[in-house]
């Protein structure tokens, strides 16, 4: 009788797979939330489109090809250059820092509709301060390895 109770109260941990417990739980929660969104938002929207009450927002609207393709090119270049620059300064986070500054500046300028002196100065300050602050907090305070 006692051995059955001790088996019930004992815990054995497989350390080879124990780190997968919480990501698995999060994946199932996210899948459930995705289904809730599909049922409550997407299905009624598609039914309204089928009845002709609404239209699909991406069909028939003009596309800003400059910003769309510019964003795609910048994102690909950002990740590629972060690795290249990061290999020049290994384990310092300078790849993230030195590539994020021009990336944020170019993205800001690309999406800026009116280029006033004040707006450009704010974009330049933001491009320097935001990645610098993120780099300082992550790389120096929390010692998280950045590319």
UniProtKB/TrEMBL annotation:
Membrane-spanning intervals of the chain: 20-43, 64-81, 93-112, 119-138
Transmembrane helix as UniProt keyword: yes
Highest classification ranks of the organism: Bacteria, Pseudomonadati, Pseudomonadota, Gammaproteobacteria, Oceanospirillales
Which UniProt keywords are given for this protein, alphabetically ordered?
Membrane, Transmembrane, Transmembrane helix
**What name does UniProt use for this protein?**
Tripartite tricarboxylate transporter
Per the UniProt record, the source organism is Halomonas rhizosphaerae
């Amino acid at each position: 009788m006692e051995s059955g109770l001790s088996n019930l109260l004992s815990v054995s941990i497989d350390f080879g797979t124990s780190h997968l417990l919480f990501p698995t739980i999060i994946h199932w929660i996210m899948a459930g939330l995705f289904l809730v969104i599909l049922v409550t938002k997407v299905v009624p929207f598609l039914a309204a489109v089928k009845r002709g009450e609404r239209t699909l927002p991406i069909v028939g609207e003009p596309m800003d090809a400059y910003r769309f393709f510019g964003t795609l090119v910048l994102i690909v270049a950002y990740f590629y250059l972060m690795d290249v620059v990061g290999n020049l300064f290994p384990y310092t986070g300078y790849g993230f820092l030195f590539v994020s500054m021009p990336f944020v500046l170019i993205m800001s300028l690309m999406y800026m509709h009116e280029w006033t002196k004040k707006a450009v100065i704010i974009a330049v300050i933001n491009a320097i301060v935001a990645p610098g602050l993120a780099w300082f907090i992550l790389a120096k305070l929390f010692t998280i390895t950045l590319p």
